[in-house]
Each structure stands twice: as structure tokens, then as C-alpha cells.
Amino acid sequence: MANILQRIGNTSVLALRNIVPASGARILLKLESENPTGSMKDRMALAMIAAAERDGRLAAGGSVVEYTGGSTGVSLALVCAVKGYRLHIVTSDAFAPEKLDHMRILGAELQVLRSTGGRMTEQLTRDMIEAARVVAADERALWTDQLNNIDQLAAYHAMAAEIWTQTDGRVDGFVQSVGTAAALRGNAEQLRRHNAQIRIVAVEPAESPVLSGGKSGAHKIDGVGAGFVVPLWHDRIADRIERVSTSDAIEMARRLAREEGIFAGSSTGANVIAALRLAERMGPGATVVTVMCDTGMKYLRTFGS
After folding, report:
1. In sequence order, what E strands does the chain have?
2. Is there a catalytic annotation at residue 63?
3. Of 78, 104, 117, 220, most Cβ neighbours within 10 A?
4. Catalytic one among 41, 99, 220, 298?
């Protein structure tokens, strides 16, 4: 019998019409907002749970634990609700309250850690990880541990296969912001199997540019920039790393809404800025694909302020 999880994936791609590079290159946006919770994280949540079911780490009636800035938690809450697992989420008040509300509505139990000024920092990430470890040990639950979990890569290999088919193989560049690094790594691996010359660009917060050799700092781009070099990252993934500030990312998200009718979050804004930079370098005739990570409906209070 069909269920909502079968609606994950096979999302559309859309060419930007007004926010375009002067070079004449084309920017395509993969609309991950079409997934059931409005986020690309539905893909990885289902992949992690399905892998744990297959190898016996998660049995009927079991419990799941994760630390998350929100979108992974919402996606896990969806998957666990459908499959009947209890879910304990460690999160923080640094993240969009809409995401925390969404997790609760889907049945997740939340432990919300206090942040410093509502900002994402390395210490907050590490505190969330430790709290999740303690809960997993106490409850003997499956800890999906997204920063280290390679099961999710298969979900992004599938996403890249969709992109390749939807573009008829006309992909010259791929751009994605880095949270766990799984989305960038999985897409890059699969796209390069088709064409090793595709340019891969990673995006990180300018306030915390650790991947490009800078210092850890605080920022407010939800879902990216853990504040340290995450385990799934390696230097061969990206040909280039672009730094984008929180203010620029949010302003681009507002522009996407006003000029394209696309209401997305700040990580999408950062992606589009970096895609524009790459497209300018690549020149006429190039096609750059980037990702609408999630819907802006998850950030109404953020953008409404």
C-alpha cells in the first residue's frame, strides 16, 4: 500500500529567469521543497532508517535519536511517524522555531539546548552531539549520527541521477552548501561518474569558513556550517569553496521570493550566490545546477522580522 514516503525524491528542476549571470550561463535550481516535509533531508532520513532496518540495527517498536538544526529532525520525524518508531531529537533555540514546531507535530520528543544569541557555533554543535550520545546510550536507541553516517550518501547518488536525466547530461557545474557534507559529496560522486570534468563548488558561511582554512565563528544560516571540518568532508570533493555571509544569503533568499516567486531558506540563498559566481566564470552556454534545500515556509518568523 502506498504511503507518503513514496513521494520522496523525483523533484523538479527549474531555470532561474531573472536572477541570472551576465555571462549568459544558465542556472538550474533543484526544487527539493517538493519533498513531503519541504526539504531535501527527507531523502537522507529515509535512507538512514532503511539501512538500519535492513541490517537489524532498528527493529519494530524501536527508538531513534538524532541531533539536528531542524530539517533532518523534521524528516526523521516524518519517517518515524510512518514507520512507528519513537524519535528523540536534540536541537537548539538557534534554529527556526517553525522546524521545532513541525517536529513536535509529527510526534518527536525534543531536547532544546540554549544557544548564545541565537547563533550557530562549534560549541553548540558539539554540545548537541554529546547530548544525543547520552540519550542513545540511556535509551538503547538507534543513533543515526548524521555527521558520520555514510548510509545517506545513497540518497544523494539518486538525487544526482535525477539531475543528470533531467538535464540530458548537460551539467557543467554543481553547487551546494555544506552541513554534514553528505549532499555535496553524494551528488559530486555520482555526477563525476558521468563526467569527471564537472566543476563542484562547496558553500560555507563567511563568518565560519573552516573548510577553506578560516576560523570557526557564529552565523545564522540554518543547516550549514557546523563550525569544524565535518567527518564526511574531504578535500577532493570540491574544486572550489565559496564563502557567503549570512546577510547576503538572507538577502538573496528575499530576492528569489520577489523576483522569481521562489520562497526558500537562507541556505538556498547562499547556494544561488555561489552558483552565480561559478556561472560568471564558466561563461556562455554553461549550465550550473544548485539546490533549493527547503521551502521558506520553514522560516516565516525569520523572514517576517
Report:
1. 13-15, 26-31, 63-67, 86-92, 109-113, 142-143, 173-177, 199-205, 240-244, 287-292
2. no
3. 78
4. 41
